[in-house]
Amino acid sequence: MLKDVKKNLIWYIALVAVILATAFGAMKMTERINYEWYWGRVPQYFVFSGDEDQFADGNGEAVIEEIDMDQSKVILEYDNGEKDTLILLQDSLMIEDGDSFSEGDKIGAIHVVRTGILIEGLITTLELSLYSGIIALIIGLFIGLARVSKNPLFRGLASIYVEVIRGTPLLVQIFIFYFFVGTVLDFSRFTAGTLALAIFAGAYVGEIIRAGIQAVDKGQMEAARSLGMNYMEAMIHIIMPQALKRVLPPLAGQFISLIKDSSLVSVIAITDLTKAGREVITSTFATFEIWFTIAGMYLVLTFTLSMIIRYIERRFSVSD
Amino acid sequence: MIDIKDICKTFYVGETVIKAVDHASYHVDQGDVVVIIGPSGSGKSSFLRCLNMLEEIDSGKIVIDGVDLTDKKTNINKIRAEVGMVFQSFNLFPHKSVLENVMLAQKIVRKRSKTEAKEIGMKLLVKVGIEEKADAYPNQLSGGQKQRVAIARALAMNPKVMLFDEPTSALDPEMVGEVLDVMKSLAREGMTMVVVTHEMGFAREVADKVIMMDAGQILEVGDPEHFFTNPTHKRTQAFLSQII
Ligand SMILES: Nc1ncnc2c1ncn2[C@@H]1O[C@H](COP(=O)(O)OP(=O)(O)O)[C@@H](O)[C@H]1O
Ligand SMILES: [Mg+2]
Q1: What is the membrane topology listed in the Swiss-Prot or TrEMBL record (chain A) (predicted)?
Q2: pLDDT per position as a tens digit, B167-180
Q3: Range of the structural domain that residue A288 is part of
C-alpha cells in the first residue's frame, strides 16, 4: 500500500485535487443561487432535546416537593382519588404547593431527550430492509431451486414470477401490493411495504442463486447421486453450500440495492428515512442540508453492509 | 451379477442424433473385472453411466444383482448406493475435508452414526494409503491422491460393483501407478469391477474380460490375451496399435 502511494504519488495528489475541486465547485454553485446553509437545524432531528409542557388530566390539588435546585416532584391529587406524580422543571412550574387546578391546566414542563424523526426513519428503513431481505432470501432459495428443477410446473411458475417482477417497476409493484393485495388481505402499511420489497428482491435473489447453482460443476451432482443421495440431499449437502459461497458477492450487491430501493415505500406513507427527510424539510425548509444528510445516512448503511459482507467472504475463503 | 440386454442411449443435440450406446448386451459375473476400451466418442462413458442410471436408457434392460433398473418400482438411489463410481475428474466435494468426503454419504444414505462413519472412513483412507491427509481439503491434494480419496469415498458405501471411467486419464504419468495399485488390490479382493481405461498393463494383469467398443456397439469381447495376440476386427487392431 505504502509502496503504491510512493509510486503513484502524482495520481494520488490529483485524486485529492479533483475531490476538493468538486466540493469547491458545489459550494460556488450554491452561492450563485443564494442558498443559506443552516446545518444547525439538522441535529435536533437526530436527537431532540428540549422542554415539553405537561397538562392536568382532571380537577384536583397539587402537592409539590422540591428535589433540588432545578427540579420538583409534583403530585397531582385528582378529585376522583387518582394520583399522578411528575418530576417537573423548577422554573417551569405554573402552580404552587397546595394550589388547585382544573382539567387542561398547564402544570409545568419536563426536560426530554428523544430520538429524532431521522433516527426513527433510519430504524424503520433498517427494519424494512432486514425483514424484506430475510424473506427475499427465503423466496430466492426456492425460486433458484425451482428454476433449475426438471419439473415443468415449478420451473414455469418460477420463470413467470421472475419475468413479471423484473419486467415491472418497483414503484408500480408497491402500489399494487398496497392498494390491491394489501386491501384484500388487510395488511398494515409496513407489512405491505415489507412484502412488496421482499417479493421484488426475491426475484433477483432467485436469479442470483440459480446462476450460483448452475456454476457448480455438473460432476458434483453426479458424484453425489452416484453415492445414492437423492436430489434434495445432494442439493442441500453438496450443491447449495458451494453455490451460496459463490453468490455471496452478487447477493451483497442485491441487499445493498434493497436498502436503497426501500426508499420507494415512502410513497405509501411509511415513515422510512426518505419520508422522514421529506417531513423535516416541510418544517425547516433546509432542503439541501437534509437531502445531503439523508444521502449520508444511506451511505453509512450500505457501506457498513459491504464491510460486513467483505468480512464474511474472507472468513469463508479460508476453507479453500 | 450385471445383466445388460440390448440397451440403447441416444442423445439429441439440435438436429443431430447421436447413438451413444447402440444395442449393447453383456453379462458381468460376480467378481469379474471387465475392462472397456475403444476410441474417444465410442460410447464407453455412456455405457458405464447407464449402469448406475446417470444416463437413463431409451430401451433395453439392465438387471444388477437381481434388481431390474428399468422397473418403475425400483428405488434408483438404493441401486446407486450399491454401485460405486469413480470419475475421470475425481469430483471430490471441495467444501468438505478428505475424511468428510468419505463420511458424508455414509451418514446420509447408509444412516450410519458419526463415529461409525468415521471409523469406516479412516479404515478406507488407510487402505488407499492417504490417512495422513484426512483433515486436508481436496484442493491441497495431488491428482493421484484425489483419485484415491474418490475410490475410498465410493467404497465407503460397501458397493457390490465398482465402475471406473478413465480413472487415470487426468493424472500426471508418475501418479498413474498409485491409483492402479489401489484398483488392482481391489480386483484381487474379488470386487466386481467395470473399468474404462486404456492402461493395457492393468488389463493384462487383472482383467477377466476386455470389451472393445466402437460407435456405440460392443465390437469385440475376449480375455486380455486375445486382444494382445490376435484381435479379430480391423478396427480393434488399428485402435490397439495406437495405444500400445
Ligand atoms: N450429455 C451428452 N449430450 C450430448 N451428447 C453426448 C452426451 N454425452 C455423450 N455424448 C455423445 O455421445 C457419444 C459417446 O460419448 P461417450 O460415451 O462420452 O464416449 P467415450 O466415453 O467413449 O469417449 C459422443 O459422440 C458424445 O459426443
Ligand atoms: Mg469417456
Answers
A1: Multi-pass membrane protein
A2: 999 999 999 999 99
A3: 117-319
